[in-house]
Specification:
Cytochrome Bc1 Complex, Chain A, domain 1; 5-stranded mixed sheet; 6-stranded mixed sheet; 15 helices; alpha+beta
């Protein structure tokens, strides 16, 4: 006889705390003292992102070119060293920050930490590498900008922030030709220094590893009076709630429906996140059940809370055949109305709670996942002291009445922007 395993509900979860430390030059770094990983991961977060750039693509070009040549190593030599030691180097540029990540074995830090420092603070920005990057990125852009999903996504941002707003402006292919190498060098000189860095250490963060980190970066001179230049931010939300972007001969249309909610630290964030999951945040959600399984209008539809430096966005996104766009929207708004008018049945709410509890544990499985979670909270300057503890408590205690009140406040369909990109019927 097959015995079904006993299900033990999650009653308490203590999220591992970061240990805040200082290098010898007073540069802050955080240690995640969790996990027996043989690898060590060093993350450097620099306060330099797309909101600081004067031209499109300058920030991402700057940070990608940093590994393409330093005062001591060429691009080829850097690639060969990383490959020889089996190390991984990544960079990711966001609105207000860029994260550089080095992943390697502790025994290789003696060689690779100095190389990491070179990439961060001694790049040469070779012109040949710059032109190669410009060419490849321009080709990728040309392929993506014709996709209806790209067009609808940009259209939604234009509605929320304004066509001339800081976050609403859409790049054009010609913007790649407007970038000059001096733009990149000036951006780097202004924003990329040890004064604006924070480090995160995870995995095998032994005392020896900490000493090596300090020996490599703690001796760099900091300017305690350094201040980042203020970057202007403007937005002009659209008065029109609907936007149609035509693309002739398109087989499918992209549908994006969304609005801006509130900062990540808002007390309703976790409740809204739960309700969003009910709507379209997992495979068994109402939108998937209705629009995909029952109606067959699409292969998939998703509702998500997307974090931005300027607040959380609620976005429903999907693709469908042109003739199904309007029927799909009818069903979408019908499901939003149901959330505002009816209590979520107890059985459905329990299913969503169990899904979210399991997903939360998966998202913080191991020190590398934990550091990703911490960096994600830090980047928005919305560090919540017990973010995951509050999330667990909300999942455990939220009621259908709570979700109905949240829906009536944040899920009114008339407050959402509707953007369609595709062929007109």
């Amino acid at each position: 006889m097959i015995q079904i395993p006993v299900i033990h509900p999650i009653e308490e979860y203590v999220f591992p705390k970061m240990e805040k430390c200082m290098l010898s030059n007073e540069t802050p770094y955080y240690v995640i003292p969790y996990g027996p990983e043989e690898m060590v991961r060093v993350d450097c977060v620099i306060e330099a992102g797309t909101l600081q750039q004067a031209k499109f693509f300058v920030a991402s070009f700057t940070h990608r070119l940093q590994r393409e040549g330093t005062l001591q190593h060429t691009s080829k030599e850097i690639a060969e060293l990383l490959d020889f030691y089996g190390a991984s180097f990544l960079s990711s540029t966001m609105e207000c920050h860029t994260v550089f990540t080095l992943l390697t074995l502790p025994k290789h830090l003696t060689v690779l930490l100095p190389l990491f420092r070179e990439i961060l603070f001694e790049p040469t920005f070779p012109e040949e590498e710059f032109e190669l990057l410009r060419k490849s990125e321009k080709q990728s852009f040309e392929l993506n900008e014709s996709k209806v999903t790209t067009m609808a996504h940009r259209g939604l941002k234009r509605c929320i922030y304004g066509a001339e707003g800081t976050l609403g402006k859409a790049p054009q292919c010609a913007d790649y030709d407007r970038i000059e190498l001096d733009d990149i060098r000036n951006f780097y000189a202004t924003y990329c220094s040890i004064d604006y860095c924070t480090f995160f250490l995870s995995g095998n963060a032994s005392s020896a590893v900490r000493k090596e980190l300090d020996a490599c970066f703690g001796q760099l001179k900091r300017n305690k009076e350094a201040r980042l230049p203020l970057t202007p931010y403007v937005e002009y939300p659209s008065a029109d709630r609907k936007l149609y972007i035509e693309k002739a001969n398109s087989v499918q249309s992209a549908v994006f429906v969304g609005k801006r909610l509130f900062p990540l630290s808002h007390p309703d964030f976790h409740k809204v996140s739960i309700l969003n999951t009910v709507l379209g945040g997992y495979f068994g959600s109402r939108l998937m059940t209705n629009i995909r399984e029952e109606k067959g209008y699409t292969y998939g539809i998703n509702s998500a809370l997307r974090r931005s430096s300027k607040g959380v966005l609620a976005v429903v996104a999907t693709q469908t055949a042109t003739q199904y766009v309007q029927p799909l929207l009818v069903e979408l708004y019908k499901e939003m109305d149901r959330l505002c008018e009816e209590l979520v049945p107890e059985e459905e709410l329990n299913t969503v709670k169990n899904y979210l509890l399991g997903d939360m544990l998966r998202s913080v499985d191991g020190s590398f996942s934990i550091v990703d979670a911490y960096i994600g909270l830090t980047l928005e300057h919305e560090v919540v002291s017990d973010f995951y503890g509050e999330k667990l408590k909300t999942i455990q205690t939220v009621t259908s009445q709570d979700l109905l009140a949240v829906a009536q406040q944040y899920f009114r369909k008339e407050e959402y922007y509707e953007v369609i990109a595709g062929k007109k019927e």
